[in-house]
Amino acid sequence: MKIVRYSVLMPVYNEARTLRAIVAHVRAMADLTLTIVPLASEVPETVRLEQEIIAVDDGSRDESPAILRELATAGELRAFFHAQNQGKGAAIRTAIQHATGEILLIQDADLEYDPRDYPRLLEPILEGRSPVVYGSRFLGGPRKAMYFRHMLGNKLLTLVTNILYDSILTDMETCYKCFRREVLDGVPLRARRFELEPEITAKILKRGYRIYEVPISYAGREYAEGKNITWRDGFPALWALIKYRFVD
């Protein structure tokens, strides 16, 4: 049986209300066993997936750091800490530095994205269909209704991505981005906040990778529940898409 290690990269900022639950949901997907059919073969293979969680607290002001220390002591995850808030992009960069898996998967610390979708994200990579897989909220999976303005902003940014980088993505801003480790090796990531999503996408597409999309479920939370992204974050994302079309 082939064994593949995958790293779940989890940025954390003021997520004490959901942190234990999301870690439990992710841990429930540990040690997956999948039967795949590699693209260049007709013979099914069994793959056992070993999981590690790399959580990075980004200067939280609630009980998130204490919860992460407790979970790390219990062996549930590996935890790292920023003394001050630097943004999601900075937390993901720190997580990448400490990850040991052959495959990297980004997981927000809220409950908007469901780890039960992991097999859908991992199978195309394991089968050799693509080294990059995105989970799309717009391919027919079950979802809680989004804010119209968020959907509109997402569609606009995805359209700009497709125009600038000759792609046909449906959900550039999705959290669920999954990569073979070598895809990100040598890619300079500079984003500090939510412009990480367009930066990673732009630089992957510029390097000639074609992104494979799969449908996922989505349960968007309300601002009263701790949602952090706002319409203002769309402007740096748009600028990032334009900038990285011409510079690296």
**The named CATH superfamily:** Spore Coat Polysaccharide Biosynthesis Protein SpsA, Chain A
Count, helices: 8
CATH structural architecture: Alpha-Beta Complex
The average pLDDT score comes to 92
Round the Cα radius of gyration to an integer and report it: 17 Å
Strand content: 15-25%
Give the arrangement of secondary structure elements.
Layout: E1 2-12, H1 19-27, E2 32-36, E3 45-58, H2 64-73, E4 78-82, H3 88-98, E5 103-106, H4 118-126, E6 132-136, H5 148-165, E7 177-180, H6 181-184, H7 196-206, E8 212-215, H8 234-246
Parallel strand pairs: 1-3, 1-5, 3-4, 6-8
Antiparallel strand pairs: 2-3, 5-7, 6-7
Helix pairs in contact: 5-8, 7-8
Fill in the keyword field for this structure.
248 residues, alpha/beta, Spore Coat Polysaccharide Biosynthesis Protein SpsA, Chain A, eight-stranded mixed sheet, 8 helices, 8 strands, 34% helix, globular
Could you characterize what this model shows?
This protein is of the alpha/beta class and 248 residues long. The protein has one domain: Alpha-Beta Complex (Spore Coat Polysaccharide Biosynthesis Protein SpsA, Chain A). The protein is built from 8 helices and 8 strands. It has helices spanning 19-27, 64-73, 88-98, 118-126, 148-165, 181-184, 196-206, 234-246, and strands at residues 2-12, 32-36, 45-58, 78-82, 103-106, 132-136, 177-180, 212-215. Strands 1, 2, 3, 4, 5, 6, 7 and 8 form an 8-stranded mixed β-sheet that branches. Helix 5 (148-165) packs parallel to helix 8 (234-246) and helix 7 (196-206) runs parallel beside helix 8 (234-246). The longest helix has 18 residues, at 148-165. The model has no long low-confidence stretch (mean pLDDT 92).
